[in-house]
Amino acid sequence: MKNSIKKMTYALAAVSVFASASVMARGAISYNYASLQYVDQEIDDSDCSQDGLRIAGSYALNSDFFVVGSLSDVSGGRCGSENYSAGIGYRTLFGADSSIYGTLSAENTSVDHGNSDSGLIAAVGVRGFFAHNLEGKAQLAHHTAFDGNTIVSGGVAYWFAPNLSVTGDAGVGTESSEVAVGLRMNF
Predict the structure, then answer these.
(1) Fewer CB within 10 Å of terminal CB in the chain, N or C?
(2) d(CA 89, CA 67)
(3) Can you list the positions of beta strands (E) in 132-175?
(4) What's the pTM?
(5) Where are the domains of the chain?
């Protein structure tokens, strides 16, 4: 476990340096967005494979604080769940074109066949542009629901229009892993 956390820390540091090093980057990272993604998840303990849609968003309250939320509905052959979360975050600039953030959220997971649970999510990450239309992110999050799950994740967003991007994300955790693709709109 200590070796995994050490590797996750190195990965976050490498992505943050890479994301802030670009001189071709566009304007500041926006925390006003809504996204829709197709998600494919693997739950380790139960050999469960589930997929479905996730709606997520963020809204900046001021230059430092923002609120976050998500709703996902994934299903599978013998498993599935609905998850919703809501929380608050704090961000600070990290270079001219990136930011470091932290969030604290409450979540609830309703499992289709089994017990449901609620808990907290504490996350830290970095987002930034590393090319003119290409944004990257890296995040480390710990979920307290069920037996707990620590997830290291990363993602990219290709901005094909000023307010629209195609996104791709991947995450590996102690209890689950997932990949997601979708669209994000800044407002």
Answers:
(1) N
(2) 6
(3) 134-143, 149-161, 164-173
(4) 0.82
(5) 2-186
